[in-house]
Amino acid sequence: MDADAEVMLHAPPFVRIFKSGRVERLLGNEVLPAGLDPATGVVSKDVLIDPATNLVARLYLPDLAGSPPDRKLPVLVYYHGGGFVIETAFSPTYHNYLNSLVAAAGVVAVSVDYRRAPEHPLPAAYDDSWAALQWVASRPSKEEWLAERGDLGRVFLAGDSAGANIVHQVALRVAAEGLSGGATIKGLLLIHPYFWGAEPLGSESRDPETRAGPEKIWALVCPGTVGPDDPRLNPLAEGAASMAGLPCRRVLVTVAEEDILRERGRAYYEALERSGWEGEARLMEAEGEQHVFHFRDPKSATAVSMMQAVVSFLTSD
């Protein structure tokens, strides 16, 4: 059989990998260009952060007509989801969401297009996400949206699913190494975080086939992993870094009732509350909803409520 036609690994709904090494992504391949969004007045542009790794981000600026020229805005660094495998910062899912969020919250946003597995296994996504945050903290003079409008004393890290996993890892690195330029992480937003573990928690499924799903993706994106209790996947595992030193004052964790990852998000919130961390944490649960439901139906009542909570989180003192 032709090696380019013989499937070596099928991991629906994410990817097929062929014996030749060819990777076929099953979702998240469409892209939208940057530019003015007529519906919100938000403008976006793509910037190259690191030519060596081709690290790119999409920047967003809200409509500032009528605003004082010296008005400073919070800075949101966003890490997209997709199991570390699918979607990009340029996908309709994320481009449309960031346009809406930036308009509602009045923030400068940096949506990071990190390298994806399996071509670039972890820690590539973590390294790119850290590099992007360092770039933001440096207040790059050539990027006037950040240099002139961004308030680096109010930086938020946010992400959904795998992106929320990245938020936690990047925050731990900030705690360990700090940020240059006087930048301050004010809050972390973890939306339906992709965490897992070997032993079921709470109402989590005990079915081996169901549990194999998150574990199969993790083995794909992180070859050589110790398994589902790898601290990068299970922040509650033995040997995981303490949450007590998270470098912010506020954390919002959102979960969905029908999401297989729900118990992990709840456990993360509860562990943070027990850790000795001195900030304020909040858990928000959407009843009757699935994983990242707010992308599929952004006008639903629960999605609107979630958007309001996120905006409040980003704009509250």
Characterize the structure shown.
The protein has about 325 residues and is α/β, with parallel strands linked by helices. Helices cover about 30% and strands about 25% of the residues. The protein contains 8 helices and 11 strands. The strands form 2 sheets. The chain has an 8-stranded mixed sheet with strand order 4-5-7-6-8-9-10-11, sandwiched between helices. Helix 2 crosses helix 4. The N and C termini lie far apart (about 60 Å). The relative contact order is 0.12. The mean pLDDT is about 95.
At a glance:
The chain has 317 residues and is α/β, with parallel strands linked by helices. The protein has eight helices and eleven strands.
Mean pLDDT over the full residue set: 95
Strands side by side in the biggest sheet: 4-5-7-6-8-9-10-11
Largest sheet: 8 strands, mixed
Total helical segments: 8
Percentage of residues in strands = 15-25%
Helix content: 25-40%
Low-confidence segments: none
Radius of gyration: 19 Å
Terminal Cα span: 62 Å
Please tell me what the overall shape is: globular
Q: Give me the secondary-structure category.
A: alpha/beta
Number of strands: 11
List the secondary-structure elements in sequence, H or E: EEEEEEHEHHEHEHEHEHH
